[in-house]
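Fig. S4 source data, part A: sequence.
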Amino acid sequence: MFKHMILLACLGAIYGSQAPLNLAVHNERKMERVVGGNNAIPHTWPWQVSLQFSYEYDDAYFYHTCGGTIIHSTWVMTAAHCVDSPQGKVYRVVLGDHNLFENDGSEMIIPVDKIIVHELWNPTQLVKGNDIAMLRLKTPAYDNGYVKLGNLPAYDEIIPHNQGCYITGWGLTQSGGSIAAVLQEAILPVVEYPICSRDDWWSHFAKNTMVCAGGDGFTAGCQGDSGGPLNCFSLGAWRVHGIVSFGPAPYCNTFRKPTVFTRVSAFMDWIYYVIDQNTQM
């Protein structure tokens, strides 16, 4: 069981793939689809972010590594494991994007100037949770017709079992495949905690500060989707109820091993505290 836990926590985590951006050769790549998903209608998820990094010695060449959600004009919410090794890296976010390898004319590119990872996050113990981080932007984002702030859930709000929510991202289209050029979306039914924590599901790796969704063996988040949103309709609006955190190895779409998200409603106090204490006036 201990080896099994290490496998899931380390190898099963949905970490970002490193696909080079803005190279003409990549415009000819095959348009693959996320695991069980479809191409999203352009700009239907205007709070979706592509988190990208470069190296300090060559900051002209960026890589998509994770997703994220813009929730304030100067703040993006993502997964802690996306940014817990920032040494030697330069981060930026791309807002309003649809095709990573083409200029859509809707993009807004803003550097990240501060990273705050949850103080209880431990990269060697992913399944203990707290996989959440906040990124402060160097300049404020604005509504250019393609960018809007994501709505957050109510404090401790729980999405009902089997409600369909959308995962969105540019992650791998199949285990061991390549990231998607076009933003993907897929419906994942929420799996309530008493079921997701059963021995034949995620067992004790599932915590009540997480949201499980999927597990049908066909549709799932995958590498490169990390940090991105789980979009659920509640209280009259689309709200970001989850942050993509981890999944099974070696195959993302494994029966009774749903994609696991950080449950945003469990961290509302922390999110607002970070914004309040670190927003430049």
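Fig. S4 source data, part B ends here. The two ends are 50 Å apart (CA to CA).
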